[in-house]
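Example 4.3 (complexes with small molecules)
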Amino acid sequence: MYAAYFEQWLAERKQQDAFRQLQHPQGIDFCSNDYIGLAHDPVFQESITHWIAQHRLSHGSTGSRLLSGHHPFYDQVEQAIADFHQASSALIFASGYMANLALMSALPQRGDWVLYDQLIHASLRDGLRMSLAHHRSFPHNDLDTLEKLLQQIRAQHGQKRIWVVVESVYSMDGDQPNLIDLSRLCQHYAAALIVDEAHAVGVIGQKGEGLVQMQGLAQACLARIVTFGKALGAHGAAVLGEEWLKQYLLNAARPQIYSTALPPATLAAIYLAYQQIPAMQAQRAHVANLSALFRQQMSLPTSPITPIQAIRIPGNSHVKACGRHLQAAGFDVRPILHPTVPRGEERLRVVLHSFNSETEVMGLTQALHEWLRQHPATSI
Ligand SMILES: Cc1ncc(COP(=O)(O)O)c(C=O)c1O
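Answer. The structure with pyridoxal-5'-phosphate bound is encoded below.
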């Protein structure tokens, strides 16, 4: 009754070639989100260890932020993050998943409308499932449809609050929305814009400040989410916005209230990463060059130039086989399967890093072409 049901569920997953399994990283890293190499950099990692020891920072926070978990270092780190991102306030969460769950479940109220890009991250969607607001997706990056929905809601529901939710770099394709037009639309229809910058921070902008600031739109967003487990090489996330947003989330967001705070030692990694990223322009430029090289070698259009590159290989078994071929050739590239992506959209998610070399990228693209030659029916 218990084991049998779930064993059957797992067996069906295996039949569909959609069974997820843990696998240790092996081979040249074209898979991790450590875009500019901070998590891989032994010197930087050593500096964090040293800092933690010097400041006697604990690996245990002992409680929720609202109880014993609010170490004085939090104020300093949140201020530094807010300053860097030209925001009035920053509120740290234990992860990007928690930040998005908190924001989407607590902010839009009963009767409000949430319009979201169909490709936003699962954490934002999961938060919306907990929300009492109406929510509706619009086709990926389709601002015409978004505008029609905004018009309809304004015509039928008058002065309801409308929240528009997007990412600045989409996690599976590495592409970007037209944030300037999007923010104009939001302003025109008095909608509040929320942007998840998980894959932009550290990578986009002269100092790695993200797409929103690079386009001068910090004040056009009601909330931004920045995460620290990707280019910052650490762990955790923050919601950026005005002071009322921070106070509201501290009072209403259950993933913040009812969970143990990140420990002070983790804050050190975040703090030092923020000090490091402005100077890492050479790493950002190298990733951009590798991305252009990869696209050229795979005969893809010249953009988007981001560390995340998708090669569509429809079908779970096909994309898995291609992944195995690349792994056997020494490249750590992971297939992204249905149901993580819609059926037919299965792909290899190739991630380029500052520590990858041109030779490695050439080797990877050769191995990919080799597999594609052996499987001529596969479209990319
Ligand atoms: C766009 C986006 N937002 C949020 C998250 C969740 O962040 P975290 O890994 O810190 O939980 C991810 C994770 O991949 C993501 O891609």
